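Need tokens for this chain, all 573 residues.
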Amino acid sequence: MRSLLALLMVGAGLAVPTGAHAAPRSATVPAHAVPRSATVPAHTAPPDVAAAVAAMQPGWNLGNTFDATGADETSWGNPRVTPELLAGIRAQGFRSIRIPVTWSQHLGAAPGHPIDAAALARLREVVAWALDDGFHVMINIHHDSWQWINTMPADHDTVLARYNAIWTQIAAAFRDASPRLLFESVNEPQFAAGGDDAALLAELNTSFHSIVRGSGGGNTERLLVLPTLHTSADQVYLDQLAGTITALGDRNVIATVHYYGYWPFSVNIAGGYRFDATAQQDLLGMFQRVHDTFVARGIPVVVGEYGLLGFDRSTGTIEQGEKLKFFELFGHQARVNRVTTMLWDNGQHFDRTGLTWRDPELYGQIRSSWRTRSGTADSDLLFTARSAPVTARTITLNPNGTGFAGLYLGRAALRRGSDYTLSGDQLTLTAKLLRRLLKDRTYGVRSTLSVRFTRGVPWRLDVLSYDTPVLTAATGDTGSFAIPTAFNGDRLATMTATYADGSYAGPQNWTAYKEYDRTFAPDYTAGVIRLTSDFFAEVTDAAPVTLTFIFWSGASVTYHVTRTGTTVTGAAG
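Here are the structure tokens for all 573 residues:
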């Protein structure tokens, strides 16, 4: 769970989530081009430690459960954990499970800060189930990081005593647990202004290490997981953690970072609605730095959380094909850089009641990436205007080291030459084929093709019929304003908002492109585009705003809105 991350302001007023990069790395930098720090010596983990961490791949997060800040594990809307849920996750191919735990609501008073016996017993029960299922299991201190640990600069002794009390009790409770149980010192560590952040985190990590190792039993050699500041993969934080690990001189220590992608792409803002070269290089750069700083020196790495930040609002925030390309490349880079990864899932991916994936196509791409590469294309959407004659259309394939194996409609292989041609990575669908696929040219998806490659999962290609969307006048209020929209088979990609003088309107006014789902969202069933109260909260009263809606077909439609108090009027431009 990444609450409060969007509140962190980095340079120029950009609200950049923890672990994201404020500026993209150059798209021309080759893999592994960042120089290694000359200050960190080699640190080679024993073969059994490296093998244990490799055996944890792939991993999954039991998010928004024991890390919930309410009374119990159901307080954030997820059901109680059952053996059937864990068995269901195990059956999906996951080998490790991270169980985030927030402790603050289960702690007694100083000086001992006793953990509520029932809460600890419940955690022990679920950990035992997971271990019995064959999982490697990781538990930690989770949202406490921003609830009270972050006050350490101003309240050092109190915070450290409380932190130490928690780990002293956890270490005792799990002293004789299977060696497949790992401890993670703290999730996404962060501190309020006024202290030396690097020194404070090093103190917490070192104290955690001392407490666990000193508790005896299986804890003397248990694998311990230490995070960077903010669990960021920025080089300065990697180097700081590498220094701590070297100073500890313990080869049973693992480094951890989190990764949620290049921020504009991850939340769909600032025009980052495609997994373009900048977003790709951000991902490549993260793995490059992690590999060179840790893996190449024998320090195993776990990416304890990964995904896309926009998923916290809706998994539809990022267009399907673009998100599939992200996860395909992420899985490949994890394999080649020998990094273990743990998918963040707060309930939005695996249905914990039905024990099925909410998006089987996404899971299929993720699962395939654990073993091999898959070919993709520049898009999974091929739009043809209903008002125009049908002509041949070309898409660019991204084979990713695979070979082209055919184009299919259902189980039927289409014919090369008459149905399509292939020249290098250019796949051209003939007009004859498209006329057949479009049928009566009703709006929307008319046919779905499958581009098959020699390895990995096929690439789905939807053939759609559309015309430019039509938006009509409306009146509403700042709490609920809906623009009547005839989408005409098209799909909304993004929206810009500007005042008459060209300045940017709405939240995050450093960009014209507003954040998908936070400020606007299409409702295809209702036939409207909704503008949120968050958007109008930062719109100047009585100042007309020009909205430009950009659709995946390439169409753009302008619309004008004016807020007067809480009343909003809108008209097509």
